[in-house]
UniProtKB/TrEMBL annotation:
Residues 9-426 form the Enolpyruvate transferase domain. This is 3-phosphoshikimate 1-carboxyvinyltransferase. The active site is at 317 (proton acceptor). The keyword Cytoplasm applies. GO terms for biological process: amino acid biosynthetic process; aromatic amino acid family biosynthetic process; chorismate biosynthetic process. Pathway: Metabolic intermediate biosynthesis; chorismate biosynthesis; chorismate from D-erythrose 4-phosphate and phosphoenolpyruvate: step 6/7. It catalyses: 3-phosphoshikimate + phosphoenolpyruvate = 5-O-(1-carboxyvinyl)-3-phosphoshikimate + phosphate. It comes from Cytobacillus horneckiae.
Amino acid sequence: MKQKKLMTQIPALNGEVIIPGDKSISHRSIMFGAIAEGRTVVSNFLMGEDCLSTISCFKKLGVEIEQTKHEVIINGKGLNGLKEPSEILNVGNSGTTIRLILGILSGRPFHSVLIGDESIGKRPMTRVTNPLRQLGATIHGRRNAEFTPLSVTGGNLTGTTYKLPVASAQVKSALLFAGLQAEGKTTILEPEKTRDHTERMIRTFGGKVTEENDAVIIEGGQSLRGTNIHVPGDISSAAFFMVAGAIVPNSEIKLKNVGLNHTRTGIIDVMKQMGADMEIIPAFTKEDEEPIGDIIIRTSSLKGTTISGALIPRLIDEIPIIALLATQAEGRTVIKDAEELKVKETNRIDTVVNELSQLGADIEATPDGMIVTGKKELKGGSAVSSHGDHRIGMMLAIAAAICDEEVLLENEEAISVSYPNFFTHLENLID
Ligand code: S3P
């Protein structure tokens, strides 16, 4: 197995990083562009593997999509413009692609087959396939549509009320896509508020969706109009540099163009609570537009904290890097109510705990999270693995920066799923 020697004992990180486009918003821009009528131009689109999988699926559904260096242009012909694919739709490693596209395909009167990579083959799908069946779609798959390969024959949906058993923006979004095509009203009840990029984008494309307390409501039969989308920088990518700046000595990093949507900024709240020396500089944005701004982070002295409840969906993807941050904080950090970590690209309770332990962290797994005791010097002197999970790979690269001994990373390629230029951006911050 090929191993990458990670940079260790980094003395300081200084400078600016222009954070690449948000993965969640990039996926949605292609999907809405594809089902809207007319041209959609997307700037700052994330050219990561996951979002390229979304483009490839929609091309197979007959949508004309042009990629230039800086933009993606989608020539949408409305929902009726989608054609029955003659090939299998392959979502690669992307959970967002498969779950959201299932919502779209559920309303289309044709047959499609979906597959993904080995990790996708282990991720639970009945959280989406069951409610979509309730709306009227016919879906088959391994273990009664829990796992890929899946096949969908859609059309003739009827709106319903569905209470999500787990807080999941992917499931909510799939139901919104299906609800747009259903007869009558679809009401989705969330146990905790999750990222609202789909709701915002429906409005940007001229559609209507209402939010009342814990309910999101959509009327079927709406048609959407193509528009221009500027994708903000991904706070989930910025998170790696937020933590790097806080734990590497003598550092000051400015992160530019970061999405600051409240449903995603849990990591900022947690870092402030832990004592991080950070400044947030919001830019002016119009109502309903995705909020955006710059973040300055400096080397910080940190203390442990508890992370649980409604905060979890606001930082679910940042937990691996927050665990690393906690190793450098005085006292205990307890992460709970985060059982969902077990069904991400890897079981992130296991991968985080095992890989950080290898480097010398004091960290233990719990049934719904982990407990980290700091402050513990990380030694390194071992080979670690991303296990094919982009966020585990990047977390380990930042962990290595504060290790004394050599650290080798197996399967670094996984990082290109969400941050193809990650290592270049890291190297540019070293004086
Ligand atoms: C995402 C939602 C989250 C997140 C994933 C992206 C999205 O998943 O972990 O990386 O774009 O809607 P869940 O909805 O399963 O929590």
